[in-house]
Queue: 2 jobs
Job 1
Amino acid sequence: MKKIILVCLIAINIYANEIQVFTTNTMHIKLDPETKVTEVYNGTLEDFYKNSKEIIESKTVTSAIANGMHSAAMTSHSTGNLYNGSSIDVNQVAAGGIGALAGYALGSGITWIISDNEYISVSVVVNSKGESSLIQTLIVANNSISNSEVKELGEKELKNLLEKASL
Amino acid sequence: MRNIFLFSLVTIAIFTTGCSTKVPGPMIFSSENNTVVETVKIRGSYNWDNVTPVQNLAIAMKKAALHFKSQNIEYFTFDPYLQVPPMITNFKDLSNYCYPSNEHSSSLEDKCKISFARDTSFKNDIVVVVDSSKKSFAFGTWSVKQVLNDPLITKSIEEAKNSVKTDIYFSDRDPDDYNALSYLRGKEAKEVKANQYIQKF
């Protein structure tokens, strides 16, 4: 009996909640130890898709980019370089926001059913050169998790990325 | 004791069944800065019995990346119909997300609508990649350079090569199969022919 219970407990542990974490750096920028991070969104993927335009164009994002660029310009001896780089966002911000970069829109009404739960944590990062990017962390779990757990996992992933960057 | 046992069973049942969630999809990635430059369909290997879905995926991804490189295209995205979220931008993530049980047993389900037709007369059931050409602030893109230098893709293709037996390989008289498998065996000269599998819509 004890063995059965032990097996059951192990099974519970294995199947309790399996979580996968996937991260992308949208602008493929190089992160460095001086990278500034601003959290933008933690929640379900579904809600993110529904509101992505508002989220990505939100003031939190634009001001994080503007502030990051500003501080990079302040610390940079040659601000000229800042604008010669490939950072598309510099022009976008200069042109009055990142509205033109609107992201997702829901598609043709086709739905698919999955039993796994999907969440996303989104942060704006601005590196010491003033290049900005979104770090989007997709979290897949077989049981539901809370937004604070999503936030925690997103922060952990960012921390790992920044630790790797400082090596 | 029995109560504990029952409790354990019920707990397992609760944890493993879960509730189905309806997810709206597929999403369309729209941006003024991103236009679809080219849409291509890519086939993996034809040797279905020996090549795993992940290996097939690796072959298809390399073919796609080679094609995009030849067109001077640096970044690409998947067709939203494939239901690969845009946060998945490298091969390891793609295989883990689409086939969670690939590396170890997993309680997560297989996802994505990536499949490879066994019957070569069906042209629809193959990997589709949509090129967006430029990277985007709003969503993740795949880097052609990164795909071509991805050690995991190289490793998966090597494994596929090793699992393809020569007799099976040459027994197939279909010229299309011959080209695809020649590519698989790493004959660089045949890579151009392999690109014939990339069919423009």
Job 2
Amino acid sequence: MTEEITLEPVVSAAQLGKTYTDGAGQVVALSGVSLRVNPGEFVAVCGPSGCGKSTLLLILGLLLKADEGVVELSGNDSSLMASSRQAAFRAENLGFVFQDFNLVPYLSVLDNVLVPTLAKPIENASGRAEALLEEMGLAHRQGHLPSELSAGERQRTALVRALLLRPKLILADEPTGNLDRDNADAVLSHLSNYTESGGAVVMATHDHEAMKRAGKRVHLDKGVQVESD
Amino acid sequence: MNTASLVTREILHRRWSFVFGTLAVMVSVFCLLGSLAVLESFDRSTENELTEMNAETERILKGHEDEIRKAMKGLGFNIHIYPEEQDLSEIYSKGYGKETMPESYVKKLADSDIVTVNHLLPRLTQMVEWPEGEATVLLFGVRGEEPIAFRGPQRKGELIDPVAAGEIALGYELHHRRNISAGDVIGFRGSEFKVARVHQRRGGIDDITAWVSLSAVQEMLGKPGRINSILALECNCESLDRLGEVTSEIRSILPNTQIIEVESKALARAQARNGAKSLRLREKEKFLEGRENLRQVRAGFANVLVLLVSLLSLVFITYLTASNVRERIHEVGTLCAIGIGFNRVLQVILSRAVLMGALGVIVSLPVLALSVDLFLEADLFDLIGFDFYGWMILVISVPLMSGAAAWLPAFFGARSAPAEILRND
């Protein structure tokens, strides 16, 4: 008798659609996009600027509501969650990395990393933060302000912040967009390492080197899923 | 990392807008407490003036009172006794009355044990024609005083008969125009009289008065045994209600009479005293009215100022919070993405404004206390007069109002859709 083990996907999206309305009329950002991400998977969402990559990540991160389709996170239908529950869910299960880092400018590197504990306190948060900073080569920078860091250091700080609460899924929106090749490689390596430890990553990028690091790629063009591999 | 640490670091990072907001709160608190202190200080200083004014009035009145007591004791006063039915308005308008009473009243009074009167002079007066002199004359029938029996030899100096029988004294207008001199014999209403005295000009009714003995006048006017008034001289009373005292005593002997006081120096002093009193009272009323008017003007101005400054401060705090939210919009989006809920984000933004209010009011108090001490030379806490709960209400309400002013921009900031902020598309 053969026992088939079925992993519960971290995120499962089906037939997602999103249309923005502005002064110029309606813009279709996403149409009929489906995606399934299992634990340990590194998924790249690829496509040119404006193809809907960020919109897809925001919907998966419960920061934006899709007009059509269903998003399930660890088996929970996101449409059934109240906004307070969504916030708590994000704190417990999701980590974000942005192209512009979005570090709090008046907090030190260590304090920036500890910001998620405002939403979900954990034991020995400082110890874990310091260990992660050490791992990312930022131990000597933990007392510095973001303005005193290089772009690569800022992005690694943002990555440590995303990793602190051990989320099931990291959503990274163009994480290498503002980085040189070496720093981009370093960040991608850390993301790969994270998936190897069981976490899942969905990364929006138009960087071909970054796409190569992903185990699965979803290509979007004008909001439509053109291929997946 | 906790909310307090996040708020504190943010305040230190954007310290100038926090300082300006705190200053705005301080200005409001300054205006509010300062105006209360100035108004109270004004009340107290004018209250002191009023107390001094009252003390001065009391001192002046006391002086007048002592003076009048001395004057009354030394001078005595004079009264007229008239028949009860006499219309006094006739006395005041013509100088004499037509009603008469028995001359025996004088004797009755003199024979009593009256103590308030020293001399009694009966009179019969009437305006008559003097055909021989072709003039109208006020004829005065007078006689020497009726001795008061019980005083005996100790009585004060007896007044001699002012005009002897068969003699006449003439006022200035009566003798001057007719070249009559003392010692002349003149005809007066069919009788002859020797002119005993001619008077100098007195500038009044005395200048057309002729004084003749009472009995001659009674006969001349066909009113034998009648008089129309008794002049009582040098009355003495211990109490301030001297007329009441003397009236009471006289009317117990002559019930069908009425008594009026002749103007005297003592009376003038009493009137001056009353005048001074009413003048001081008027001054006091004027002062109080002026004080109240000035206070109302100041209070009105203070109310408008406090309201305006408070409103501007609140608007300024609203503006500062809106600017702060605009500056922190990516931070707010990131906090939402990380999983920090709406309430916590709102708390982080509002805490800044509440701290502005708290710091503003706490710093204001010692600074204002020092200013009041320097400029008003008073104690702020004594001037304002709040009790413990009053101060607590102030210290709590200012941060709450500051927080309320920041509410709208903080609310909209915390409610901003993170997707709009973080979207790269």
